[in-house]
Design brief:
Elements (H helix, E strand, L loop, with lengths): L15 H10 L3 H14 L3 E2 L30 E2 L15 E3 L3 H10 L5 H12 L11 H11 L6 H11 L12 H10 L5 H12 L1 H5 L3 H8 L3 H12 L18 E3 L3 E6 L2 E5 L8 E3 L1 H9 L5 H42 L1 H6 L10 H8 L3 H8 L3 E4 L2 E4 L7 E3 L5 E3 H13 L9 H10 L6 H10 L5 H4 L3
Parallel strand pairs: 5-8
Antiparallel strand pairs: 1-7, 2-7, 3-4, 5-6, 8-9, 10-11
Helix pairs in contact: 1-13, 3-4, 4-6, 7-8, 8-11, 12-13, 13-15, 15-16, 18-19
Length: 469
């Protein structure tokens, strides 16, 4: 017996304007201008050429179907978004940010002479690397995944051959399956001096002793004196254990030429926030196109009505688009101003110690926007300050209390932790418990598990692995 149940479910339906606004808010400034050009290309009613003198009325006018009849011309329809400055085509200040890890590897793959099958397998391997650049999965699993997900029948030997090619890419060490292999790959690419040869022997044949800091045992087995051992160790510690880049709670740069979405000037003790000056084209109806469209529909009332409906739809689309641009501007400006007000001391000094704990909810409460809106504003947006270029994500971090009951950001805690490690006696490095004590001396109440978490995020090894001869 089938049982049917009826229920009411309330759903909020977004208007075309809201949908348009949400999409535009997500775009950084360069993509926004491209999006505007795309809209101009796709909507024939829109035009960005200067209006004729007899069309100089700047007042937007709504047009209904009833206004479009045999005796009327299509009225001038002009909407201007004039909130980005006066320059028609100013020069951007562009800044190059580092190329993303995967993009760099794919670019290098493109220079290899591989057939389509080999290229597909190598690309699949690249997509399987973790954030540190390691291949943490076993080869058999990759063979299975290639069959089921990419429809490529292969075997272990072919996958290993493609992995070998990837391991020749920059940064050195990429594609390694563990730390030992990562370091050995890097040593393999260096000039084979005595210290490099000794370092290779240590990692290749005595990695467990190396991990446990059993230096005397290694020296005895390899016949090295203390000077040779120190030189070999110095070579090893300069290697990069994370060729994919250390991941923490800040941000990842993407490969692109970026244009800051915000500019912050500091003059005579005052902070001045602005958005980059670029010209959003004047948007208006293309009168010639509309007239031509209406003339072509003179043969019947039906055709004329269809043409008028089409023009009305395009005009509505234009109005939504321009209004969405205005709302985007206001939303971004309000959000950045709230961040600026919240982090006043930091933006004046550029000192990380002055960066207050701040989460999306804090800015949402100040602006009255949803957290999802704040997230969209923050994503992929940059600000140029008098002390550098930063993604907006950089200014957000959780917080902990210090011994005075004041909340401090995790970024500040990490900075102090790094200072503790940098200042330790490398012959007797501080354990996590000792680091807790050191942090407490400096006024920060931090649990041992928090120290371990931040130490890992900073790429700081455990005490026994930091020990030097």
């Amino acid at each position: 017996m089938l049982k049917q149940e009826l229920g009411l479910k309330q759903q909020q339906k977004l208007s075309p304007l809201q949908i348009q606004t949400i999409k535009l808010i997500e775009l950084p400034v360069q993509e926004l201008e491209q999006r505007i050009r795309k809209e101009l290309e796709e909507n024939p009613v829109l035009d960005d050429t200067p209006a004729a003198s007899d069309e100089s009325d700047d007042t937007p006018r709504d047009v209904s179907l009833s206004e479009i009849n045999e005796d009327d011309q299509i009225p001038a329809y002009k909407l201007r978004v004039n909130n980005y400055g006066k320059d028609e085509r100013p020069q951007y200040n562009t800044f190059s940010v580092k190329q993303s890890f995967t993009q760099s590897l794919m670019e290098q793959l493109g220079f290899r002479r591989l057939d389509e099958r080999q290229h597909s397998i190598a690309a699949f391997i690249i997509g399987s690397l973790d954030e540190d650049g390691y291949l943490r999965r076993d080869i058999d699993s990759l063979v299975d995944d290639l069959a089921f997900r990419a429809n490529i029948e292969t075997d272990e030997d072919e996958v290993l051959a493609m992995l070998g090619i990837i391991q020749e890419f920059d940064p050195a060490g990429v594609g390694a399956r563990d730390l030992r292999e990562c370091l050995l790959i890097q040593l393999r690419n260096l000039k084979q001096t005595d210290d490099v040869v000794n370092a290779t022997a240590i990692l290749k044949n005595h990695f467990q002793d190396f991990s446990n800091k059993h230096f005397q045992r290694i020296m005895s087995r390899l016949g090295l004196d203390e000077s040779q051992m120190k030189k070999a160790m110095a070579r090893i510690v300069r290697l990069n254990p994370s060729p994919g880049g250390q991941v923490d709670d800040s941000y990842n740069d993407q490969a692109q030429q970026i244009v800051p979405d915000f500019l912050l000037d500091y003059d005579n003790g005052e902070l001045h926030l602005s958005m980059p000056r670029f010209s959003i084209p004047e948007i208006r109806i293309n009168r010639k196109y509309a007239d031509l469209l209406m003339e072509s529909a003179n043969s019947s009332e039906r055709q004329k009505k269809e043409a008028a409906t089409f023009v009305k739809q395009k005009m509505d689309s234009a109005k939504w688009f321009v209004e969405a641009l205005k709302q985007r501007h206001n939303t971004l400006q309000s959000t950045m101003q709230a961040i600026l007000d919240y982090q006043q001391e930091y933006f004046r000094t550029g000192d990380e110690a002055n960066l207050r704990p701040m989460v999306l909810k804090d800015i949402a409460e100040i602006t009255g926007f949803d957290i999802s809106t704040i997230s969209r504003v923050v994503n992929s947006k940059y600000i140029e300050t008098h002390f550098g270029i930063f993604p907006l994500k950089y200014f957000f971090s959780e917080g902990l209390e210090n011994q005075d009951g004041e909340e401090v950001s995790t970024r500040e805690l990490k900075k102090v932790l790094q200072e503790c490690v940098d200042g330790e006696d490398k012959h007797k490095p501080l354990t996590d418990d000792q680091l807790v004590a050191e942090m407490n001396k400096r006024g920060y109440k931090v649990a041992r598990r928090t120290i371990a978490k931040y130490r890992d995020q900073l790429g700081i090894a455990k005490a026994r692995l930091r020990k030097e001869l």
